[in-house]
Amino acid sequence: MQMKNIHLKQRLTTIGLFVVLLALTLCSIGATFIVWQTAEQASKAIYEDTLYQQANHQLLLENSTVCKYSFQPGSENRNALQVAHQQVRMVLQRESAIGQADDIAAIKPILAEQARFFTAAERFFALIDAHDITRAITFYNAAIDPLFATISGQLEREAAFNHDIATQSLAQMQTILRLAFIITTLVFVFGISLIFLFLWTSRRYQHQQYVNELAEQDMQRMANVQLHLLPRELPTMGSLEVYACSRPARQVGGDFYTFDKHASGQCALTIGDVSGKGLRAALLMAMMRTIIQVTVHALLQLEPKAIAGKVNEHLYDDFTEVGMFATIFVSCYDPATRQLAYTNAGHSPVIYCPAGDSARFLDADVPMIGVLPMLPTRNTTVPLAPDDVLVMATDGLSEAHNADGEMFGYERLLALVEQHRQESAQNIAEALFEAVNGFAGTCEQFDDQTVVIMKGIAQ
Amino acid sequence: MEITSAQINGTTILQLHGRFDAYAAPTVENFFQKINSDPLPRVVVNLSQVNFIDSTGLATLVIGMKRCRQRQGDLVLCGIQQAIRVIFELTRLDKILTMTATQEEALAKVQVQQKG
Q: Which of A305, A328, A356, A456 could pair with A377 as two cysteines, CB 3.0-4.6 Å apart?
């Protein structure tokens, strides 16, 4: 669960970073595009400003040539005027060629006035050539000078206008460039973070896979150890047929059973289930098994309540420490009397099916091991005459689920035992497993499944 | 499984709904762990809406009860449906877990036991 959350967080962080990076990259591209556009606008404005200034300069030349002609008439100044006039026209035509519609509209009247200026200059020259100085000066003041002022004013305005555009564009460009610099730095930082995150995540993932593999191997080893802790041989007694089988779940649980022969010829048979799973359950199960063995060998008179009591006495503190419990069903079979004495510490299901009678559960006498510091155990006895069947199972069978979440349950087990009571202990066990398997279908086995079956046989 | 919790006079009431199985047990256990940091943990678990319990569910309740009692508190169950009561009886847990029919009785019991 926690691991899933970590993976989700990593994934969200990666997606978040990626989205931020994408957004920043788009911003960066946008900023670059705007800078490019602004730069073009600025350079065009600067060029146009220069053209207007050039035109204005040539106009000044024209005007000064006109003035110079008054005291130095001749072809030289006439030519100079012609040249300057051509220059102004050329510059303005160049501007007209690159300019927008409003530029062209502005240039047209300038060119017209420029033509009028040239015509006026020609007239002024004629007056000078006729030595009519007074009229020439009057004409200059009345016609040429105002024309010059108008044209020059217009050219200056256009130049200033373009100069403003250039200045604004450059300022704008500066701001955007600053922003672009910040964005690019962020793109770099986020990009690097994303790369590191990718590297880190993949390393972590590899590590996690390695850890999972180790854990899986450990679990398999533990399952093997656990299977080896179970008795390898079934007890052989003339009057009793015993069969036992345990199928561990993928994640090791705490099912176990023991068979211990007592000096008196009796046999102690127990089945147990430690709550929870994994290493703790396996360790407690191993401890319980050892305590049962030692107790059986130490008891002078074999009694199930003494065994259950000892197990609880020795392990109560350990169980409390780890917050776990175990259910056990301890039974002692006496071949001489064919009686089975038992103590049930919270264990279920245990099914007793006497020959010729209906099957019933042997309910718990006392709560499970590890709950009460002192267990008020007692012995109960049932006969195991020929064809009497006793099935000790663990909740892995009764709590097996199918795909609908339905539980196999106790009643089905009871019915199965009655149905197969005539068969051998092994066949009954196989029938139980087969029924549980068929019921669970494709659902994974969640808990260990263990059965120990005793059946009285005629000697 | 859905869990709702409420506080009445310093007693935590956990109302469980639905299936109390191995999948639901960790959530309930987390609740118990939170409550167990109290100096005198008093818990009432209302099982009236629980229609299924398995061995892990039972074990969780026993763990909760043991932890409460270790800290001089108590845990009382109430409103157990008949089908589930059978399982408590089968495992003899009815002998060690305090059970009442109604939540009011459970509240009274958990507080009386405290005073006693």
A: A305
